What does this fold into?
Amino acid sequence: MLFPTDDLGSQSDDESDNEGGYSSEDEQDFRNEMDSDGDGKLNREEIYRWLVPDDFDHIVDESNHLFTEADDDKVCNICLAAELFKFQCLYFFIYASRLVTIS
It folds into this structure.
């Protein structure tokens, strides 16, 4: 359960803002946007809609992020050789770190 709904009216707004770190605005968002069936907790479908909203495309966002990170000189040109070198360095680092054991 994200918000305890049985005792919400027992505290003033100032007290409820500090307890648990949730503001009254967070509580409103939970009740109005996330908890569609109004039972005070999120079921699987509500959690899925919260994590994967309909109005946000994760694939486009991730591809934009990857291209932005790969474009070192920020002129929209990505050098394949440079990216392969970065990947090889990362792979070598991961491989080498697995060889070293902490005793």
